[in-house]
Amino acid sequence: MYNHCQNPKCHHYTTTDRVRGPKGNKVYVTRNATTYFGIACTLHCLNEFWHHNRQAIKRAIPELPKQSRPFNTYLNENNEWVDINKAVVPEMR
To answer: What is the pTM of this model?
Structure first.
């Protein structure tokens, strides 16, 4: 988790809560990161962060191949495919 918003353009927005510094020497600073995955201060900054870093994210998270499962089956606790029609139902006491 980061302390400050990771959007590289966050300090470009002119809002009063970003203004810091003594009179005559004011600057716009990056806001603190909040609940947006702990990396952005607003949803707008989060979207810009994703857009700015999309190539690095695509390289870091590979695309999953097409997946499938046999028809009328489910995965049991032992990580085995079990046919729904032939499944043994435990007796209720």
So the answer is: 0.58
What pLDDT, on a 0 to 100 scale, did the predictor assign at position 47?
93
| Two structure tokens written together for 39 | 């990396």
Q: How many CB atoms lie within 10 A of CB 33?
A: 21
Q: Report the SS3 class of residue 36.
A: strand
Residues 8-20: tens digit of each pLDDT: 888 777 777 778 8
Residues 42 and 6: their CA atoms lie apart, in Å, by 11
Residues 6+ apart with CB under 8 A from 15: none
**Whole-angstrom distance, CA of residue 33 vs CA of residue 72:** 46
